[in-house]
Amino acid sequence: MTFIAPSRFFSFLLAGLMACLIAAPPARAAFETRAGAAYVLDLTTDSTLLVKNADTPLPPASMSKLMTLNMLFEALRDGRVRLDTRFSVSSRAKAMGGSTMFLTEADRPTVEDLIKGIIVQSGNDACVAVAEGLAGTEDAFSRLMNERAAALGMTNSTFANASGWPDPNHRMSMKDLATLASRLITEFPEYYDYFALKEFGYDGRAPQNRFNRNPLLSLDIGADGLKTGHTQEAGYGLVGSAIQGNRRIVFVLTGLSSPTERAEEAERIVNWAFRQFARKTVALKGTQLAEAKVWMGASRRVGLTVAEDVEILVPALLRGEIAAEAVFQTPLRAPIKAGDELGALVFDLPGIAEKSVPLIAAKDVPRGGVIPHLRTAAEALLGRAAMAVQGL
Predict the structure, then answer these.
(1) In the chain, what is the straight-line distance between the N-terminal and C-terminal CA atoms, in Å?
(2) Which domain holds residue 288?
(3) Which of 122, 256, 302, 346 is 20–30 Å from 311 (CA)?
């Protein structure tokens, strides 16, 4: 990676930005999806590949069951319940329509049963049983869901129930759903395998309803989760994830017209995400990538580097150099310690959201003695004199 030296600095007396620019690659068309809203994330490199109406709060249907599962996984992690803990089934839970586990008030399903029933059978009754088992009532559970979503940074989500049952106050954005899916993958690996289950039937009931609705699980393309959704208002949607080689993607689609269109669009997105992008190492740990002026230091400049090798996702057909910019305040004030974060290395790639990596000091720069102080004072006087002359 070759940086071109900047042509000039901003005034030494004013905080400014220094940029090191590399030739930009040619523009490239983004993926065109039939979904009404979509979001695709390369989880391995934290690179956003596709955004379409991704911050718009929309009816999530059963995809919001992922939040109910998150609450249950957190309870498992905290030791408030175990996989073999049994929950009761209320008449309210039994009366739930739509997709169910076919629970009755006489049942005492385990937490593990309910996890499988929610994931595979999309059980609305199972969601109510979990909500009542953890919070007493579904309304109380919904309030906890809202509080937790806010704490997790899901700013475009509001929950009115545990199942995704149609409600004007029940909304999620596609980006929030991707955030939630990423959390389930990274924070709860011990439970994530449940999302790849292809079938489950509680106590042998309704054998025709025992199959996972995720259309990608049987395609041998690395898909291993997460959750489908459908209501008349929302259309057909899917929160999915797939892993191929050393990369994992997370994607969210909604607003599709049929299960067939959902399956086709999901497979198209998985193939596109893996085949049109590749990982590249673009900066090595310890390599000086830029240099900044230092104010009142024993050295007049400090090199900027990265703490670890930088690996980013780039379009597979990209040839030549990669656009990047080193952004930091100048001058920097001494003392500076090696490893201090002083700025950012920002990459601008076609078809991928801007990505930044911290720039750190390559060495210590202690405060200067008498000579650096005199030199700094002289430079300041010269700077003011030059500006005074320009003002005449």
Answers:
(1) 44
(2) 16-26+281-390
(3) 302
Residues acting as catalytic residues: 62, 65, 122
Strand 332-333 relative to strand 290-295, pairing: parallel
Residue 227 labeled ligand binder:
yes
pLDDT tens readout for residues 69-123 = 999 999 999 999 999 999 999 999 999 999 999 999 999 999 999 999 999 999 9
230, β-bridge pairs: 236
Rounded to whole angstroms, the Cα distance separating 161 from 149 reads 13
Given a cut of 90, is residue 323 above it in pLDDT? no
102, 130 contact by CB (below 8 A): no
- d(C-alpha 353, C-alpha 351), whole Å: 7
Helix (H) or strand (E) holding 134: helix 124-135
pTM (predicted TM-score):
0.84
Q: What does the DSSP 8-state code read for residue 20?
A: -
3-state secondary structure 261-316: HHHHHHHHHHHHHHHCEEEEEEECCCCCCEEEEEECECCCEEEEECCCCEEEEEEC
pLDDT in tens, 217-238: 999 999 999 999 999 999 999 9
Distance (Å, rounded) from C-alpha 4 to C-alpha 362?
19
The CATH number that applies at residue 21 is: 2.60.410.10
Residue 388 confidence (pLDDT)? 39
Say whether both 64 and 213 belong to one domain: yes
pLDDT mean over 333-354: 91
